[in-house]
Amino acid sequence: MISAQDSATGADATILVEGLERVYSSGLRAVDGVDLAVAAGEIYGFLGPNGAGKSTTVRILTTLLRPTGGHASVAGFDVVKEASQVRRSIGVALQEAALDPLMTGRELLELQGALHGLRRAESKLRAEELLERVDLVAAAERLLNTYSGGMRRRLDLAMALVHRPMVLFLDEPTTGLDPVSRSSLWTELRKLNDEGTTIFLTTQYLEEAEQLADRVGIIDHGKIVAEGTPQELGRLVGEPGLYVKLIDRSQSERARDLLAVHGAVSDREAGGLTIRTSLGARAIAPIVRTLDEAQIEVDAVEVEEPTLDDVFIAVTGHRAEDASEDDS
User: CA 238, 211, 200: angle at the middle one, nearest 5?
Assistant: First the structure.
């Protein structure tokens, strides 16, 4: 397992988890000795298959569930002993958030402000600021039951930001959104992070983690099985690949035999080949030369770095699309 604990030591970690456990009365060990540290101003992506322990961990960190072992602190406060201080320091947007469909977006934001102790005038001002921030001013007086999925997720984010939290917990914030809405939310999360907000993000979209996260932790069966930057995790899979597309598919078998001297070769669809080599892009020239000398015409050669999807499969045995929702 790659560890990136040096990115956030116990002394400077905004989120610090040590030996965290959650065992249910049924004997299910949903979280089994999790250690992780998230630095101030970092975006930490948290991935895992269905039932791996993602949501249980998040519920503990947001004080919604008590651990049965270990220790966790958020913004310098113990999640058990100082739960109220933790709640004042965090914003939370969970998938199961229950919002009154017969209230308007503005009413919900002002109510959230009141619940956080803001005075009426301050709550109104903050609601207006956030409606502008998440581009919901035009829909501010509409009832929530008229909002699209993307609008609801933007309102969820705004409600989590009412009290200007140090740390933002997001549980699969773009699930079910169209690509345009997803991109818009990504832009807003980057802005928040640039302003200094620490973000703990669970997601089923590996592209989302690659696009947003400074570091990624992958949990499986209640344990962290891999952690690091997306680039570091990519190296877990092994060497980068070169995709070689041939003009004449019938020559793929001969090309495979010739290219074996450059690395491990495997077949791809439509007569293409993938070569795993530690040289990466530096292998392109000798590969093309080898094929040219054998009079095998090459249509294209592309470098393919291992993706988080490759890592996910390698460390959990599951495909990423099986990680849609954590029920533990």
Answer: 100
